[in-house]
Write a structure and sequence with these properties.
Among the domains are: about 10-135 and about 520-605, 3-Layer(aba) Sandwich (Rossmann fold); about 260-445, Valyl/Leucyl/Isoleucyl-tRNA synthetase, editing domain (Isoleucyl-tRNA Synthetase, domain 2); about 680-780, Isoleucyl-tRNA Synthetase, Domain 1, CATH 1.10.730.10; about 785-844, Ubiquitin-like (UB roll). Helix content is about 35%, strand content about 20%. It is built from 26 helices and 38 strands. Strands 12, 13, 14, 15, 16, 17 and 20 form a seven-stranded mixed β-sheet that branches. Strands 2-1-26-28 form a four-stranded parallel β-sheet, covered by helices on one side. Strand 37 (about 830-835) and strand 38 form a beta hairpin. Helix 1 packs across helix 24, helix 3 (about 95-105) packs across helix 4 (about 105-125) and helix 21 runs antiparallel to helix 22 (about 715-725). The longest helix has 19 residues, at about 60-80. The relative contact order is 0.11. It binds one RNA strand of 88 nucleotides through helix 7, strand 13, helix 10, strand 17 and helix 11.
RNA sequence: GCCGGCGUGGCGAAAUGGCAGACGCAAGGGACUUAAAAUCCCUUUCCGCGAAAGUGGAGUGCGGGUUCGAGUCCCGCCGCCGGCACCA
């Protein structure tokens, strides 16, 4: 195949048009105030999730989403929109740093090389990006603003009264550092002693290092955190106004994990300490027969009795050595030890034992629970194992065995008895609040965002330390660029690699720079904003560009359509929404949400139906497909495979199918002469379309238009195939057919459309034609064929005039020979006539 | 375990509650050709009957239901894929 003559000369014209588009700036989108900006045009911002430029290059999975957005971008341009369709690089990150460690090359060099390759590959597919807007997260001119945004977070707090981000100056408390959106805390990192390095979460698989499979420990280290938890409620509420798949919204909601319940205070008998627990079932308080603290709970030591101190200490050590995974997944059997202390159940004054157990997590709620074994599976399991008392306080609606965790009627609960669960909860919370023993509250699973990494290849923090205190550097000092290190190797301690750059760290005689760097998520949190105004050196985004492209209007989201994989359904999209909301509150942005509409493309599997991976050897690259079949075939096949959102396997035979279709389109216009050269077909003529051809043509305009709008690209393509099949044997062949088809095809197969438009001598370019409009009156037929069913079974067909009345249709249907046969000896009970669809005769 | 999504020919798939399988792949047959490739035409859900044009029945993972009519809506299962997973 590769040595054989191509069915149409795409290797010649595809690169030529790509160069032409680049050279003429065909897809440049002017900003308000810029040359060529037309304020009358509506804007359309269509965004891809930008890639990490890996050394392996693009694979066909990337190309799927990018093709879909490119079709929409081109379609909207043809419909008169000012289209923002940018591309850039999420280029900080581990692989580049690891490659640097291995080869000694600076990550900046390898990153630049990978970007070159990615850009070349994307341009070879003919994507209509506005390359003047290209950004890379690793560019100091870009991450200057990433650091600037960090300073905005550092210098603000979330005011619970206004439920908004405010400058830290509005905070009147004693310790502003305790409320900043960016703050410092001791948090555990993944430390791998064998590798002598900290690991990112993505480098830890099943509690072991991805490289080498060594055990990973959790070790506390001073870390930067972002207070995303303050936005939990806003992040849930904001989802309502967005056009996202319901599944993704649900994923985010579950991740945030809102639950309503109560905080209840239990007093420790011996020390008098109050320990708060969080419960979603305050109605079961009378059934709380013991208490459990997380092993890391700060009061564990204090309350433990001397007799239990050794056992408690031993248990704590055992738990600490377990990784998070060992602690959760592998711990099938419940474990724990008594502290020897007792607490008082505030509801009934009962004396209950206090245990520690690792099934209670320090990171959720208060790190302490009241155990109600009769109505909680975990507490039940624990109580059975350690022979702790179990008391039923909820009557199930129908008798059940063992532990009942559902809703029912309160029993054995004094003033709650007889109340349904919901009402009992309310009553108990009111009682607790009245007695000052607790209060209703809302809890979230969401944790604050651990924002520092012990890495070289990331954004340095614009922070210096002096006398053990942090402070921001001046905005004028941005960007803070990493020093050029020759040695990127881990330090062998949890200290970040930047700690080796002694000169760089020294900020003044008494102050030193922060040596952690930001995580890869940082740069991708706001890149969609920079695309709107990439060259602005005064602001991260200018207000005019923000108002125009992010579209200050009734909808909350700015980007009109955002397409990418589900793997970012939670983290990236949540982080970006968080930053956006903070910046919005501070008055830097005009919309409360970044992405109005989100679509997830499905994964493309290898030809073997397995996930594509190097180790399986089933990776298909766009380069190889383009070499054999051309960029247009690649694009068309990516879209023809099936619905965008669906997972589907690659098939080279399928590529050949669309390649043959494109060749047929080519031959609608071209034929080979004696010398084997392509010349405009002699069958072409300025001849009117037959009425059947007109109908097909206008049906095609209608369907392709509707299908693109619905992102149903596969069916749009089949309709264009139908069109082509209709005309391929027509002689003479109306030129008008190509005037209609080529603009429709242009978003899908832009090179071929451009080339044929040019060769046929039509004015302008296919890609800049106004989008064709269909004429509905040409679609109606004078006579229509209707299927006739008898008792729901197809029996015959009748042909009736378009304008036939129901009565006429009914009469014609009953007169049809097969229908008479089928209804012989039966009485017609009812006849359903659906105009334009069918007739159903119900007979008994 | 909980929460999502998906089950339609040999394969990728299509079908506002209204003719199931458009379009494409593959397979088989034919035309063109010295031959092949390419191209073009025809056939192809399954099971009967018929020499044939035809013709009868079944059929969208399984079992029920709603409806004149269900791939589509409802209830209950089964299978695959994805996410979360001791979250009190």
């Amino acid at each position: 195949m590769s040595t054989q003559r191509k069915q149409f000369p795409f290797p010649e014209f595809e690169p030529r048009w790509q160069q032409e588009w680049l050279a003429t700036g065909a897809f440049r989108a002017p900003n308000p105030g810029g040359t060529g900006f037309d304020p009358a045009k509506p804007k359309y911002y269509i965004l891809d999730m930008f890639p990490y430029p890996s050394g392996d290059g693009l694979h066909v999975g990337h190309v799927e989403g990018y093709t879909a957005t490119d079709i929409l971008a081109r379609f909207h341009r043809m419909r008169g929109f000012n289209v923002l369709h940018p591309m850039g690089w999420d280029a900080f990150g581990l692989p580049a740093e690891q490659f640097a460690i291995k080869t000694g090359q600076h990550p900046r060099a390898t990153t630049a090389r990978n970007i070159e390759n990615f850009r070349r590959q994307l341009q070879a597919v003919g994507f209509s990006y506005d390359w003047d807007r290209e950004v890379s997260t690793t560019d100091p001119a870009y991450f200057r603003w990433t650091q600037w945004i960090f300073l905005q977070l550092y210098n603000s707090w979330f005011n619970p009264a206004s439920k908004k981000t405010e400058p830290i100056s509005t905070y009147t408390g004693a310790d502003p550092d305790s409320v900043r959106l960016a703050y410092v805390a001791e948090m555990p990192v993944n430390w791998c002693p064998q590798l002598g390095t900290v690991l990112a979460n993505e480098e830890v698989v099943d509690g072991k290092s991805e490289v080498g499979g060594f055990p990973v420990e959790r070790r506390p280290l001073r870390q930067w955190m972002l207070r995303i938890t303050a936005f939990a409620e806003r992040l849930i509420e904001g989802l309502d106004g967005l056009d996202w798949p319901e599944g993704i919204k649900l994923l985010q909601k579950n991740w945030i994990g809102r639950s309503e319940g109560a905080l209840v205070e239990f007093a420790i008998e011996s020390t008098g300490d109050g320990i708060e627990v969080f419960t979603t079932r305050p109605d079961t308080l009378f059934g709380a027969t013991y208490m459990i603290l997380a092993p890391e709970h700060p009061l564990v030591e204090k309350i433990s009795t001397p007799a239990q101190a050794a056992a408690v200490a031993e248990y704590k050590t055992a738990v600490a050595s377990k990784s998070d995974l060992a602690r959760t997944d592998l711990a099938k059997e419940k474990t724990g030890v008594p502290t020897g202390a007792f607490a008082t159940n505030p509801a009934n004054g009962e004396r209950i034992p206090v245990w520690i157990a690792d099934y209670v997590l320090m990171g959720y709620g208060t790190g302490a629970i009241m155990a109600v074994p009769a109505h909680d599976e975990r507490d039940f399991e624990f109580a059975k194992k350690f022979a702790l008392p179990i008391r039923e306080v909820v009557q199930p609606p129908s008798p059940t065995e063992a532990c009942f965790a559902g809703e029912g009627t309160a029993i054995n609960s004094s003033f709650l008895d007889g109340l349904p669960t919901a009402e009992a909860k309310r009553r108990m919370v009111a009682w607790l609040e009245e007695k000052n023993l607790g209060r209703g509250t809302v809890n979230y699973k969401l944790r604050d965002w651990l924002f520092s990494r012990q890495r070289y290849w990331g954004e340095p923090f614009p922070i210096v330390w002096e006398s053990g205190r942090h402070r921001p550097v001046c905005e004028s000092e941005l960007p803070v660029v990493q020093p050029d290190l020759d040695d990127f190797k881990p330090t062998g301690t949890p200290e970040p690699p930047l700690s080796k750059a002694r000169d760089w760290i020294r900020y003044s005689a008494t102050a030193g720079r922060e040596t952690n760097t930001m995580p890869q998520w940082a740069g991708s949190c706001w890149y969609y904003l920079r695309f709107c105004d990439p060259q602005n050196s005064n602001r991260f985004i200018g207000p005019e560009a923000d108002h125009y492209w992010m579209g200050k209007n009734s909808r909350p989201g700015g980007v009109d359509l955002y397409v990418g994989g589900t793997e970012h359904a939670v983290l990236h999209l949540l982080y970006a929404r968080f930053w956006h909301k903070a910046l919005f509150d501070l008055g830097h942005l005009s919309t409360p949400e970044p992405f109005q509409r989100l679509v997830n493309q499905g994964m493309i599997l290898g030809p073997d139906g397995q996930k594509m991976s190097k180790s399986r050897g089933n990776v298909v690259t766009p380069d190889s497909v383009i070499a054999e079949y051309g960029a247009d075939s690649l694009r068309l096949y990516e879209m023809f495979m099936g619905p965008l959102e669906q997972m589907k396997p690659w098939s080279m035979k399928g590529v050949e199918g669309v390649y043959r279709f494109l060749a047929r389109v080519w031959r609608l216009a071209m034929e080979e002469n004696q010398e084997g050269e392509w010349v405009v077909s002699k069958d072409l003529a300025e001849t009117p379309l037959s009425s059947a051809q007109l109908r097909t043509a206008h049906a095609t305009i209608k369907k392709v238009t509707a299908d693109i709008e619905a992102l149903a690209f596969n069916t749009a393509i089949s309709q264009m195939m139908v069109f082509t099949n209709e005309f391929v044997n027509a002689a003479p062949r109306p030129l008008e057919a190509l005037r209609i088809l080529l603009p429709l095809l242009s978003p899908f197969a832009p090179h071929l459309a451009e080339e044929l438009w040019h060769r046929l001598g039509f004015p302008g370019r296919a890609s800049t034609q106004p989008w064709p409009k269909h004429d509905e009156s040409l679609l109606v037929e004078n006579e229509i064929e209707l299927p006739v069913q008898v008792n729901g079974k197809l029996r015959d067909r009748i042909v009736v005039p378009k304008a036939a009345t129901k009565e006429e249709i009914e009469a014609a249907a009953q007169a049809a020979p097969k229908v008479r046969e089928a209804t012989a000896g039966l009485t017609v009970a009812k006849t359903i006539v659906v105009p334009g669809k069918l007739v159903n005769i119900v007979a008994k």
